[in-house]
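Q: Here's a chain of 92 amino acids. Please give me its 3D structure as tokens.
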Amino acid sequence: MCRSIKTLRRPETAATTGEIEAAARQFVRKVSGYRAPSARNQVAFDAAIEEIAHASRHLLEALAVDVEEGPDRWTPSAARRDGPAAAGRAAS
């Protein structure tokens, strides 16, 4: 696995729609090679994120992972500074 791909869902909690979208956005950025699309490519970029988020939600549901409406709860600065335990505390 590529080192710059970050885990966006904690195994002990339900996934949120925000985390699924963040994972889809990260994947599209990785595949396209662009952090942000040009105005000309915005529609294709957004459509790809939506399709990947949809497929990801189906995967999680097939794996019996609960999916809740909500924001992306992952806090990268706390996780880098204090390790995985801090990221878990931030979601509490």
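Q: Can you summarize the key feature?
A: The first helix runs from residue 17 to 32.
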